[in-house]
Amino acid sequence: MLADKDGDGLFRFVTVGGIDDRSLAGKPVLVGEKQIAGVMGACPVHLSTRSEREVILKASALRIDTGPGSKDLDVGDYATFATRFQTAGPSLMGKALDNRIGVATLIRLFRDVPEHIELIAAFTVQEEIGLRGAKTAAYNSDADMAFILDCTPANDQKTFDGSENTNYRTRVGYGPAIYTMDGRTLYDHRLIRYLSELGDQYDIRYQYRQPAPGGTDAGTIHLSKGGIPSISISVPGRYPHSACMVARKSDWEGLIQLMTAALRHLNLDIIAGDR
Q1: Rg (CA), the chain
Q2: How many C-beta atoms surround the C-beta of residue 151 within 10 A?
Q3: 232: which strand partners?
């Protein structure tokens, strides 16, 4: 978000949500309602001192440059990465796939809703700054249970020294990831078992997300009212919170297949037992 003018066509800015400072310098952006082109500029590497080159540039050290005469922009306007969505072999590449994949999945599921259930969908906002949209949506919906569709960091590449990475959260290409625990939620074991058994029954590849910090909209949904039984299921992706995320199309298709089966067989007996 533009925070202050720093010259003709130059703006200081602040980040909203968990943006990785390492991904900012040199990235093209689109600014304001008219999507005016700009770039997050920094001093060229060959003109920087050695100590400057060894420091990760923070947002406060960068400026958005839209060129002189940018009269349609002002403090408070938002800038977004100008990354275009594309496919590369089996991969999906684009900005904000977390949470655009969740939105696309909901749209697909609404094409064929089973008649025996009432499916309520919420395209929530402001997850990154406090789960605000999910909190109001959960309170208003009075749902019997909740499935949170999202992306999750894969972190599945080799370590810098080439040793085996045992600290990955999920792996791309291994199917959608069912959450068991994260920094905000202990997920409902009845729904974990329900999705796992459906995956086995229909031969849909899935994986479990390793317990780790972070969280999803479930963090506030499962606490709403008397407590809504909740489960998160996500598509793994590399390089989240940067200008471009990479995910596998097969993992997204697996999410759609698993959720289609979950809705088809859904009934209240699933959550009738003890928590």
Answers
A1: 21
A2: 25
A3: 148
